[in-house]
Design a protein that fits this description.
Elements: E1 3-6, H1 13-23, E2 27-32, E3 43-47, H2 53-61, E4 67-69, H3 73-81, E5 85-87, E6 93-94, H4 96-114, H5 128-150
Parallel strand pairs: 1-2, 1-4, 2-3, 4-5
Antiparallel strand pairs: 5-6
Helix pairs in contact: 1-5, 3-4
Length: 151
Amino acid sequence: MKILVDADACPVKGIIEEVAKEYNIPVYLFVDTSHILSSDYSKIIVVSKAPDAVDFALFNHTQKGDIIVTQDYGVAAMALGKGAYAIHHNGREYLDKNIDQMLMERHMAKKVRMAGGRIKGNTKKRSCQEDERFRSSFYRLCNKAINDNLL
């Protein structure tokens, strides 16, 4: 079991590493060449800046029982298909029972944007409460993954 992170725009890398260290779970941070990361704990995987290159590299390294951290619903859906666990940086776990709805919402939002419409986004600074919500959800998911992998 390992933790794979779509790290290009991930605001919770520090939290992920803190929790992973406690459980002694290896972490892989996937970024494209336009990002510079360093870590004393995680292995950093740098890929080309091609469209979806990080997504495909992360998916290709995913195995059953891994934990994926991504804000991309498509990556989450593919990870679930491989038997991995997936979580958004807001703390929401991606599940077989909610991923179809999330993908449909993403599709509808894209249609609105393509027609010239706008989707209201979250432009405010990330709060400590959001970080704590992620930390709590991430601990829960790590415990779930560990317990499932022991069975």
